[in-house]
Amino acid sequence: MLEVDGVTTRYGAITALHGASLEVHAGELVALVGPNGAGKTTLLNTVAGLLSPATGSVRFDGEDITGMEPASLVRRGLALVPEHRRIFKDLSVEENLRIGGTTASAADRKQRLEEAAELFPVLRAKWTTSAGFLSGGEAQQLAVARALMSNPRLILLDEPTMGLAPTLVDVVFDLLQRLREQGRTLLVVEQNATRILQIADRGYLLRTGNIIASGTGAELAADTSLFESFIGGDAGSAT
Ligand SMILES: Nc1ncnc2c1ncn2[C@@H]1O[C@H](COP(=O)(O)OP(=O)(O)O)[C@@H](O)[C@H]1O
Ligand SMILES: [Mg+2]
Hints:
This protein is an alpha/beta fold. The chain has a domain at 2-85 and 153-231: P-loop containing nucleotide triphosphate hydrolases (Rossmann fold), CATH 3.40.50. The protein contains ten helices and ten strands. The strands form two sheets. Strands 6-7-8-3-9-10 form a six-stranded mixed sheet, sandwiched between helices. The protein has a four-stranded antiparallel sheet with strand order 2-1-4-5, with helices on one face. Helix 6 runs parallel beside helix 7. The two termini are 29 Å apart. Adenosine-5'-diphosphate binds at residues 11, 14, 16, 34, 36-42.
């Protein structure tokens, strides 16, 4: 479903990704793990069209989408749940969801709002509340619910449990499982490497802009060199 091939992405003189390649097959949950500054966000943002790669290509469902606008990608069925959630704090829960559904027809949008209220009772209870008043866990659920408004087949999630209390981390992990049971395909960047690899079909380890290991979740989780590379990684990023 997704093929990232030899992608190099730069911020001016800084090269954040050095020819990274990975693939995600339909129905898979793929984990992307690695220390802080490894280039995980850069990779997701490049796939989502927020950044343009200097070299390499990105294919989605066989189509070359390299350098396409984010809105075109949303219409094709690819959605990003960005790092730090990035919901609109001054808008209500419902308004945030409506923004996520701008590419959908009015009828689809109405149906998906109903689905969001069903899937996220916590959000239904705060439907007209400004998103700025939500807790971290609620805001994360809103960020995911907003992405679902475009009915994506492939969802990229960037650190969905960052800053959440342990019980809310459980809520988000349950949500990932549910999305997968709905038949969605997921590429998840996650600091809880051990835990995401337990539920992932496959995973990739990114370090200083290079994919340095890949395998099934179980293989990577059992690979002690993975954990060594975390410990040897940038300060404070060991899981
Ligand atoms: N907007 C930016 N301008 C310059 N450098 C950046 C920018 N964003 C990220 N970087 C650099 O690119 C590298 C990868 O960052 P990032 O993709 O955010 O890593 P991760 O998500 O794995 O923590 C880091 O060295 C970071 O400092
Ligand atoms: Mg990041």
